[in-house]
């Protein structure tokens, strides 16, 4: 018998990395189970034990899969919300609209209600100690959601959304049961992603009327955020990485703000002409950023641009 | 000057020219108010927010340090146990019970650590922190399973393991023994037993490999029932067949040379 086992194990080894793996493994299992039942009395208890383990592991893996899928849906919806907010923010506001940011934010909140619905259905999957068990599966979606939510909040209020307010959106209507507990790290990492969106918002809006003032405002805001996060980054490993991205975003906005400051201070130009100049600067900006990761190239760039204009 | 006449109107040729060739006079207005200086300071996070979050973060740091202390304690114990248990490879069967007895007090003292951890870990946060100790805990369970096998030739069940280590049912949201960690310990057990099969023969104990072989085959059959995903447990499970092969080779050698007594199987 031992010889056959050696052979079968050898065969299992050989088939291991091949397509027939599952089939082969099943054969080995049947074989071993058949030989073991005759050979040993200890087996029933072992099989019984492992039956339970299988149920336990299957339950865990299935839940994990469900949460990964849900998290992906949430990420998608949140990304769409962010695009929607960018589009709305770029729209020319109606003349009578006092607070166009608020109008955009309202539509964003509306869209995010779909995400909140998904979370409400996940409540039982994340109850008790489960949230931390599946935190790694849940976090990416949660952070994307916080990014979208905080972007909408920024457009409406011009501030960072507070921790409790984020948690409030993830609770039932009575505000008693949490769909999902909010962790400080998810909150901060979601906000850290916001700075990237604000960079896009500032730079793509820069050619609009009032866009330059907005860009400078965003610049100061992102700088403040970065300073706030800096204090907290020693505690959260991923935040340290994201701070680097935030620094890059900030630099892009700063370079844009620099261009504005130089033009608007040196020349007494009417806004329309300034718009043209800045628009051109922005369109070249992207290419240079891609080449050199956005390091202090704007100075050279504006020289080239002047040359072109001649 | 043409310059002055034009400045009242819209954009002009002259203005574009001045843009390209800045004149000294244009620099004089540089000190004038710019966009930058008109920006008001905006709120980022307000200060109680910052305080609150920093408070939460610092609490976690403190928690982590407390856990780390306990894990260090556990590590000391597991190192002692593994060190002692390493002697099974050179201990004759009749001296084995005494050796196993000498490990038991250290094993039972792990209860202090699990008890302490169950009070340190906040409710529902078991999975948040478990990575800090899962390796040490797996080693402790491995030691317990090895002692159980060598004493009673039986598989230490998950609940027995939890009981030995003082992990109580009511701790479950703060301190528990997950199936995955238990299974890791069993794989370590098989790794160790495959070594023991070889060394037992060296010591002249020819029955041991056969008993080990049967025990390990049962375990392997059990593992084969699991649907493992591609993780370390799966990789370690895949490596089990090498241990089985090694044990089988020893059994093969012993059997062919008729070194083992005719009916080595325990009743």
UniProtKB/TrEMBL annotation, chain A:
SUPFAM superfamilies: Translin (SSF74784). It is found in: Cytoplasm; Nucleus. Its main location: cytoplasm. Keywords: Cytoplasm, Nucleus. It holds the Pfam family Translin. Gene3D superfamilies: Translin, domain 1, Translin, domain 2. InterPro entries: Translin_C (IPR016069), Translin_fam (IPR002848), Translin_N (IPR016068), Translin_sf (IPR036081). The keyword Cytoplasm applies. One of its GO terms (molecular function) is sequence-specific DNA binding. GO terms for cellular component: cytoplasm; nucleus. The keyword Nucleus applies. Belongs to the translin family. This is Translin.
Automatic annotation (TrEMBL), chain B:
The keyword Cytoplasm applies. Its main location: cytoplasm. GO terms for biological process: RNA metabolic process. It is found in: Cytoplasm; Nucleus. One of its GO terms (molecular function) is single-stranded DNA binding. Gene3D superfamilies: Translin, domain 1, Translin, domain 2. Keywords: Cytoplasm, DNA-binding, Nucleus, RNA-binding. It comes from the Eukaryota. One of its GO terms (cellular component) is nucleus. InterPro entries: Translin, Translin_C, Translin_fam, Translin_N, Translin_sf. Belongs to the translin family. This is Translin. It comes from Cyclocybe aegerita (Black poplar mushroom).
